[in-house]
Design a protein that fits this description.
Strand content of chain B: under 5%
Oligomer: heterodimer
Helix content of chain B: over 70%
Largest sheet of chain A: none
Number of strands of chain B: 0
Number of helices of chain A: 3
Number of domains of chain B: 1
CATH topology of chain A: Helix Hairpins
Number of domains of chain A: 1
CATH architecture of chain A: Orthogonal Bundle
Helix content of chain A: over 70%
Distance between the termini of chain A: 59 Å
Order of helices and strands of chain A: HHH
């Protein structure tokens, strides 16, 4: 019984996270200005990382953890570079 | 590694509750990103997912893998520390850039 509850709550959590990624995508496409799009990209990265973690719990392999860590790292670097670009007009000075 | 069917019931229920709570909080944050009106209020919304949502899902992952492998698995703390350190830095940079552009 509780295994069934766990399985279904994993499915529901993944649906929620995909809907959150959809919201971020919509804001990324619609966003009136560039900073809205960068913020939406950051939220998109975080939601994707959480989706990877739920995949890891569901399949029981720790392989997805490394993917999640990599997404977190690259998301930070990407958002920082975009913010720097919006501030100065170039990434590396 | 223990087969997942041998994990006790309360661990399964606790993992389910934590992951569902984290995913709901993250969805609420992203809905705020979609619904709020201007950029400076939209910045606040997704941090709900990056702090509480991430913490709840990582706690569920810690509980689940510690029970399934019958040893403490705490490498998820690495992601939590990393998110807590980097999110304020990136959003501060982004808001400063937006403020500079609005001026």
């Amino acid at each position: 019984m509780s295994a069934l509850i766990l399985q279904w709550s994993m499915v529901v959590a993944q649906v929620f996270l995909v809907l959150a990624m959809g919201c971020a995508t919509w804001r990324m496409l619609r966003g009136p200005r560039a900073q809205d799009r960068v913020l939406a990209l950051d939220a998109f990265y975080v939601n994707g990382m959480l989706l990877m973690l739920t995949f890891g719990i569901r399949t029981g392999t720790t392989l997805y953890f490394d993917v999640a860590l990599l997404i977190a790292l690259l998301g930070f670097v990407g958002t920082a570079a975009f913010a720097k670009f919006l501030m100065r007009g170039e990434v590396i000075e | 590694m223990m087969p997942p069917s041998a994990v006790p019931d309360w661990v399964m229920l606790l993992t389910a509750a934590l992951v569902l709570f984290g995913a709901s909080i993250t969805l609420i944050g992203s809905l705020g990103l979609l619904r709020l009106r201007d950029f400076y209020s939209r910045v606040h919304a997704p941090t709900l997912g990056t702090t509480l949502g991430t913490a709840a899902i990582l706690a569920g992952s810690i509980v689940w893998f510690s029970a399934a492998q019958t040893r403490p698995v705490i490498h998820e703390v690495l992601i939590l520390v990393f998110m807590v350190v980097t999110t304020p830095v990136t959003l501060l940079l982004l808001v400063r850039a937006a403020f500079f552009r609005d001026r």
